[in-house]
Request: fold
Amino acid sequence: MSGSNISAQPSADRATVIGPGSAAVIEHPSSSPLSIHDMTVAYHRKPVLWDIDYDAPVGKLVAIVGPNGAGKSTLIKAAMDLIPKVSGLVHVFGEPYRKQRRRVGYVPQRGAVDWDFPINALQVVAMGLYRQIGWFWPVTRKYRVLAMESLDRVGMADYAKRQISQLSGGQQQRVFLARALAQNADLYLMDEPFAGVDASTERAIVAILKELQSGGKTALVVHHDLQTVTEYFDHVFLLNMRLVATGPVREVFTPENLRKTYGGKLALLDQVGHKMSGVAP
Amino acid sequence: MIDTLHPTSVSRRIVHATAVLAALCAAASPAIAGPHEHEHVQRDSTPSSPSQEHPNSHSPAPLIVWPTWDEVTRVLSLRDYNTRVVLLGTMVLGMTAGLIGTFMLLRKRALVGDVVSHASLPGIAIAYIVMESHSAGSGKSLTGLSIGAMLAGVSGVLCTTAIRRFTRIKEDAAMAIVLSIFFGLGIALFTIVQRMPTGSAAGLSAFIYGKASTMKAADVQVIAVVSVVAIGVCMALFRQFSLLCFDEDFAKSQGWPTGLLDLALMGLVVCVSVIGQKSVGLLLVVAMLIIPAASARFWTNDVLKMAVAATLIGGLTAFFGVTTSALFPKFAAGATIVLVGSSFFTFSLFFGLRRGFVRRAFMHHSLKQRVGQDDLLRSFYELLETDAKAAMKSASPTVNVSDTNLDINLGMPRERLLAARSWSTRRLTQLIKKARRSGLVQLAPDDSIQLTMNGAVEARRAVRNHRLWELFLIEYADIAPSHVDRDADEIEHVLEPAIVAELVELMNEQFPEMRMPPSPHPLELELELELEL
Reply:
């Protein structure tokens, strides 16, 4: 990187490490898929996120990593106005989120909904198209075809008419992914898509992520499995109520940063550290 | 010092509150138990006899008066104007309530209807007092009372929301608090109404217990208008409501005005419970909202079909409830409607085509049977396979065993079958009995078990399915060979023929010229055998 501070380029390959005492000056490039300015979020009176300042790089897969209660889901939800912010601004491709909703695809946590709901897989996917369809128009053939294509992309075309409670956890997750894909967004925010899915679903999701990336899309993914971060993602966002570090996995996903994020308590860290030392140059 | 709630002080407060409430109820009881406490749809044909009007007179009336055939035909053919009016109003109400109840049930807000109706009680009383003090005699205006009920109902719901949002009290507790406070307040206000000059004749108790029989054409008009609007809104916003009920966060992220949609839904609930109070009473109106929807859920897995079914069930419930009430004097219409509704529910609970208890039990039972039978045959076959292998290994160790050189006529002692799986003796006996009845096995003269021709074919199929499935799991689902047996066990019994065909193709690629794929993992019995050798 050239090192010029005023370049309007998204800081795709620059690592930002914010430690105590370091006064970080970060510019917010207008082309960033998601830029968060000084966002603070609190539940009741307890702050969950402090002063998050972040620009997502274009066309990268970003893992949001942090311990339980670090505010990973909160970060995504607050960015999308699903929960109120105490302060801060969120811009999507240089404009407020409200104006750019169609360009953002959201994959909520699988556990957030009642899978006993009387609806089939195709109908769930079609929900991603409701906004396009408009208020009072029916779901026409054209949209059903679109929904079907999305289901096919995640390998679930055969299950289109299945009631959603009859799907396995992995299949349910794929349906959620397909719903976001149907929207054909440019930025995807996914909340723990890999939680509790089978190996083949995990592979399918990774394949979709890579496919999205090669199509120039950006994805921010809340991820809990440290072991696979290096394999699946190119950027990482280490979070523990504050932004600990963010940047390319190679530079930022270090045992030291992880210790800062997790408070040095995790035995797993050493394992990951070993793995990292094998991967990193 | 932090103000902590000491347990005893809490209990003292509760006792105190209960005492206050009890006193209030006692004071208000004349207002509630008005002259028309048990109301039924009147039969115009029956001239009211003195004994029915004054149950305490000389000849006691029988507990149940069975209707005559003439009365039955008269009610069912809708010959009476009064019955027609009541039936029409209640059915339209039932259908609308069923439709809206579908969304309330799916939104997990089943009790909101209850909050609305209980909370509307003080609204009714206040509206009456206000109207009476404005101009005496105008207090009975249904429109005025309904507006009061609606406002109070809405504020009840808003209170629940506020308590939930601004305190840490959970939703169920918030509902219980609001519901009881508003209802208590309502009853206290009814005592005041009772003391007003026209109060005792006001008949406000009809709102608590319902009084379908007094329904007038004008009431039906109100019900019809509200219902048309409600059904129209539901149809227009069907997708949005479904999305809201299924995944509120996603709806919000898509930019749907979830707050407004929620408000619209609440508004509909308030309207229906307020117009429903007059006929079934505020205590029972929640049943009209929820029972049809809950019943419909047993019959379908599609939200649109569920809504249609709930609408129909709501209408039918009202029809049968009102006609029953018309046929049996002294049966209050509201109660009858709810009882009919509960019988619909019970029927659906047991016989619902999608989720009914009987269907589930049947599916479970037949699956269990199939699994048991497959397991028996498979164990049998694998034992035979092991024997054949052992025999051949002792002859020449390199020869591969295939199913062509199995001696399927070999008898199998029960003990070996018992050892092959974790069956109890009783379960094995059961399985064998069942298999004998299906002609799959027979008893040899020495009491060992023998496969029949049919049984051999079935056993081969079961083993083949199991191994195909194991192959599939190893090939496609990344399950380690050592775990594959158990996972395959769970699923193989439900394999669809199309999948089996696909697996066969896969198998043919991997193991040409072989009708039975070898087990991808050593059979337990073989392991034992190898240890012995």
Summary: The two ends of chain A are 18 Å apart (CA to CA). The first helix of chain A runs from residue 72 to 79. Chain A touches chain B at residues 44, 77, 80-82, 98, 101, 104, 106, 108, 112-114, 117-120, 123-124, 127-128, 130-131, 133, 135-136, 139, 163, 179, 198-200 (CB under 8 Å).
